[in-house]
Amino acid sequence: MTRVSTHGKCILVGEHAVVYGCPAIAMPIRELRFEMEIFQNFKNTLDMHIDEKPASNLIKRIVSDTYQLLNLEFKGAEITGKSDIPIGAGLGSSAAFCSGITQLVATANDLHLSKQKIIETANSLEKRFHGTPSGLDTATLVYNGPIFFRSRKNIDAIEPTKRFNFLIIDSEIRSPTLAMVQKAKPFFEGSKRQKTIDGFTKAVNTCKNALMNGDHEGVAESMTRSQVLLKSVGVVGSESETIIQKCIQAGCLSAKISGAGGGGVILALLPDNHEDSKRIKATLKQSYSSGLFIDFSI
Questions:
Q1: CB-CB contact of 266 with 134 (8 Å)
Q2: Cα gap 42→106, rounded to integer Å
Q3: Can you list the domains of the chain with their CATH numbers?
Q4: How many CB atoms lie under 10 A from the CB of residue 278?
Q5: Distance (Å, rounded) from C-alpha 189 to C-alpha 295?
Q6: What are the angstrom distances between the C-alpha of 296 and each of 27, 64, 142, 169, 293?
Q7: In 3-state terms, what secondary structure has residue 121?
Q8: pTM here?
Q9: Of 141, 54, 125, 127, nearest to 91 (Cα)?
């Protein structure tokens, strides 16, 4: 029996723009887990369950693809998985599965993979879900820490000099990622392209420097700037905007959507002061207790 555990992620700044070659910063959410285990039974069949439900044909095809991409012969297996990462919320559920199944199959077959090989394989698998993923999600999971992402082969780990505390609130509204990408696309083309790209790139670079200098106000500034840009490209829904405003009113330093938008989750930066953060979380919890509500740190 072989077991592997992966986790969720969120984009701090740079979503949408990363698809067009801009840098982005993402970070892991270790509080959200996707756990899988495999028993190779040598029966030439696949028996697979996720959250105690039979795996879909899509999931089974991805398992088959994993063996092929790793040049391994499939001889039969029983795979079970358990996930508390919400699907379609921009928290990396598909990337967690793809990176997890890559590592699970490799480990079960005594195959050692480099970080780059895991990222490449998982990203190839994630195309089954998203068509042309940037590679940001899988890279964040494999690096297991905040990253500055330029491309699949140009990734830097970020080591903040201070602790940064964040809050995730789920709007409980879902929109297809592809639909949101298409909605934002006109702003990354033609006469609007350069202004949009310059705006996102500036926000990401500001954020990177602020993280490395332990500057909470700098991170807040970059998040706010990013949120304005995301709203301008049309991917911030009214419910998300309401949650963002409540976060600011409660005392968060900044708040923005994280991911494709059209719903999904809100990412809020909490103050450095523990008592202030505790008070803010208690205030917001009263309004948003029905869905996902978690705090985490980097």
A1: no
A2: 16
A3: 2-157 (3.30.230.10), 165-297 (3.30.70.890)
A4: 12
A5: 36
A6: 10, 35, 18, 12, 10
A7: helix
A8: 0.92
A9: 141
At 170, is the secondary structure helix, strand, or coil? strand
Q: 152, exposed or middle or buried, with CB in 10 Å at 0-12, 13-18, 19+? A: middle
Block residue for tokens 């490799």: 106
Alpha-carbon distance values, 106 to 112, 118, 183, 257 (Å):
7, 9, 38, 35
The one-digit pLDDT tens for each residue of the chain (298 residues) are 899 999 999 999 999 999 899 999 999 999 999 999 999 888 999 999 999 999 999 999 999 999 999 999 999 999 999 999 998 888 999 999 999 999 999 999 999 999 999 999 999 999 888 777 788 999 999 898 999 999 878 999 999 999 999 999 999 999 888 889 899 999 999 999 999 999 999 999 999 999 999 999 999 999 999 999 999 999 999 999 999 999 999 999 999 999 889 999 999 999 999 999 999 999 999 988 777 899 999 9
- Quick check: 101 and 58 in contact, CB under 8 A? no
* Cα distances (angstroms) measured from residue 264 to each of 222, 241, 256, 270: 20, 12, 11, 19
Could you tell me how far CA 238 lies from the centroid of its own chain?
Answer: 22
Strand partners for 296? 166
Give the closest residue to 169 by CA, choosing from 261, 260, 295. Answer: 295
In this structure, are residues 240 and 263 in contact, taking their beta carbons and an 8 Å threshold?
Answer: yes
